Amino acid sequence: MQPIPVLYRDSDIIVVHKPSGLLVHRSLIDKRETEFLVQRLRDQIGQYVYSVHRLDKPTSGLLVMALSSEVARQLSAQFEQQLVEKRYVALVRGFVNEAQCIDYPLLEKLDKMTDNMDKVPESKPAISYLEPLAHLELPFPVSKYQTGRFSLVELSPKTGRKHQLRRHMAHIRHPIIGDTTHGDGKQNRYISEHFGIRRLALCAKMLGFKHPTDGKHTSLKIETMLDDDLGAIQLALDQFCVKQFDALSDIRLFTDENLF
Fold first, then answer.
1. Candidates 56, 179, 184, 227; catalytic one
2. Could you read off the pLDDT of 34-49 as tens digits, one per residue?
């Protein structure tokens, strides 16, 4: 079993890269799972860790965790006050032509383990920012179309609703590739067949927040690379990119080691 990649650690916090397919912690949603990030990381570093936010099981990328309950309280406050900057990279269906703000309320999704199931779900404000990075046109027919059109995008959620980015992208008819709940099954199979991506094409690539305890309110900005199992995105960019936006030049997607 591969160790969880650690990108930053000090005496109070740790930032790790969660692989796709791993739950952050135990959930009734997937009772059969026996592996969880918090337990694996605790065993790896020999210290208890406190989760202050989460990523969906199929999403990979950055998570910050606290190493004490007091630090967890301070970090949680930053998330609750929407002071944490979060940026994701995703592959989505169709051509996204311009940056936009998706301001679309989402109905609460209750968790059987942590929420009162007698509660009536409410519609909550939800805001996400979308920036196109590149257009890809693949020369293989899909459905009634002669080519497959996709966009590489950067997503920044302002709020933190459950499955927010996946639901917002589905709402604007650009579902994230590999999303088996909110996505397009035909397009998912198409990308799986031609590029071997068999997971949700969504990675939490950057986290920006204030250090909770250093006394200087130092701003930390931690970045990661896309996972090896998303490496076909670089192959598609090299071979089938038909438009590149300026924002792509500011983003490094892969290390040299995980390119084809």
1. 56
2. 789 999 999 999 999 9
